[in-house]
Amino acid sequence: MMDGVEVGRVNVAARACGISIRAFELAVAYAQQRETFGKPIAQHQAIAFQLAEMAIKVEAAHQMMVNAARLKDAGQRNDVEAGMAKVIASEYCAEVTTQSFRIHGGYGYSKEYEIERLMREAPFLLIGEGTSEIQKTIISRGLLKEYKLKG
């Protein structure tokens, strides 16, 4: 049973990574096209810093998801790693998608822009295969078992 749960958590992490990557790509493209005060908004420090933060989150979540998937492919138990990947990927997905939505401004509400759909999809990943709180319970139990004091 745990095998299926672990695969499901890695799957949710992978879906969250995909949405995050796409939301990031949309934000970067839009920020280079949209102009304010005579220059693309990507050249404003506030937007540039948001893009940098988004890229960091996308990369970190992706690396953790790949690690969990590799462990599962190798036939190892990965309940802790799958839980950690699911937490970081789903939480960062919600954050990155929201940042992208905000960069799009009012256009983010328009069905003509893909970010509108991503904003509807991202929140589900926070609860699919167990909430972050449930994952943290599983992670902490696994860590306490792994790092149990001897004596």
Order of helices and strands: HEEHHHH
Q: Approximately how much helix is present in the residues?
A: over 70%
Distance between the termini: 33 Å
Q: Examine the secondary-structure arrangement and name the CATH architecture.
A: Up-down Bundle
- State which percent range the strand residues make up: under 5%
> Superfamily at the CATH H level?
Butyryl-CoA Dehydrogenase, subunit A, domain 3
Total helix count? 5
Describe this protein's structure.
The protein has 151 residues and is mostly helical. The chain has a single domain, classed as Butyryl-CoA Dehydrogenase, subunit A, domain 3 (Up-down Bundle). It is 75% helix and 3% strand. It is built from 5 helices and 2 strands. The protein has helices at residues 2-33, 45-73, 79-104, 115-125, 132-146, and strands spanning 35-36, 39-40. A two-stranded antiparallel ribbon has the order 1-2. A hairpin with a 2-residue loop joins strand 1 and strand 2 (39-40). The longest helix has 32 residues, at 2-33. The radius of gyration is 18 Å and the shape is elongated. The relative contact order is 0.18. The model has no long low-confidence stretch (mean pLDDT 95). It comes from Blastococcus brunescens.
Observed structural traits:
two-stranded antiparallel ribbon, 5 helices, 75% helix, mainly alpha, AcylCo_DH/oxidase_C, 3% strand, 2 strands, Butyryl-CoA Dehydrogenase, subunit A, domain 3, 151 residues
